[in-house]
Amino acid sequence: MSSSAISTDVNRRAAQRSPEEAHPILVWKVMGRLDQYDRRQRLAKRWLAGASLAAATLIARRRVNRS
Questions:
Q1: Which pLDDT score, from 0 to 100, does residue 7 have?
Q2: Does residue 65 fall inside a structural domain?
Q3: Average pLDDT of the segment spanning 32-54
Q4: Mapping DSSP to helix (H, G, I), strand (E, B) and coil, where does residue 21 land?
Q5: Domain assignment present for 5
Q6: Is residue 39 in some structural domain?
Q7: pTM for the model
Q8: Is residue 46 part of a domain?
Q9: What share of the chain is helix, strand, coil (3-state, %, to 5)?
Q10: CB neighbours of residue 10 within 10 Å
């Protein structure tokens, strides 16, 4: 499919879209941002869990070494 045929197809779809419906490219961008946000949130939770475990391990080792 040539690029002019693709742009014609996109324009035709845009003309058929209702005014409330978001443009597909905008939807892709928003979904990408949400995925990125989810990924960052999961990484932050994982890092926090790892840091908490490391801190608890250090505290436990120090207590064992004292006695």
A1: 62
A2: yes
A3: 95
A4: coil
A5: no
A6: yes
A7: 0.51
A8: yes
A9: 85, 0, 15
A10: 13
Side-chain half-sphere of 39: how many Cα atoms within 13 Å?
Answer: 6
- The token pair that represents 6 in the structure block: 């693709």
Which structure tokens are listed for 10? 């996109």
Q: Which pLDDT score, from 0 to 100, does residue 2 have?
A: 57
Which residue type, as a one-letter code, is found at position 47? W
Report CA-CA distances (Å) from 26 to 16, 29, 37, 39, 40: 17, 5, 16, 20, 21
Q: How many domains does the chain contain in total?
A: 1
Look at residue 18 and tell me whether its pLDDT is greater than 60.
yes
**Residue carrying structure tokens 């324009």:** 11
pLDDT at 13: 65
- Domain span at 38: 24-67
